Amino acid sequence: MTHRQRLSMIVVTLLAALGLAAVGANPASAAPNTRTAVPAAAVPSIPIAGTFTDAAGGTGSFAGSFTPTNFSARNGNLLATGTLTGTLTDSAGSAVGTVTRTVSMPAAVAQATCRILDLTLGPLHLDLLGLVVDLNRVHLTITAESGPGNLLGNLLCAIAGLLDRNPGAGTLAAILNYLLALLGQR
């Protein structure tokens, strides 16, 4: 695996971990990109899909992709700025138009699971007043899944992460921009 492929895999993993969430791209959220754009071939794109109400009052669809070019922190939140490209299709299935626009959208750190306990017991021999218990090797792993509706998982992940030092949005933006810059080098 080449250096470029390894860096691409790191960025893909980080973007997946960040769980880029598009909450809508309207002209008000469009922002000009003041930094040098990273070549699109080097940075993986994230698929984006959505719906809109077309001129006939039906539900049209949007299918496209988002390619990040820059990350920033605004009011303690991590933002991804990049190029949104895609096609608008009306409710009759006809292509209405295409979009190529620079947009900013929030990026959130998503934690799917956290390890609570990983316990390995070797073989055990107990003689309890004539009752003999032989237990072979036991490996117990308990993980918690956080997310909507997972009350116990959310609680245990929060408790398990109390002493973790989570980087702020500015630190994450700096790390992601550094990785994007590395991908842009030839």
TrEMBL record:
Keyword terms, alphabetized: Signal
Superkingdom: Bacteria
Keyword Signal listed: yes
Signal sequence bounds: 1-30
Protein name listed in UniProt: ABC transporter substrate-binding protein
Originating species: Actinoplanes aureus
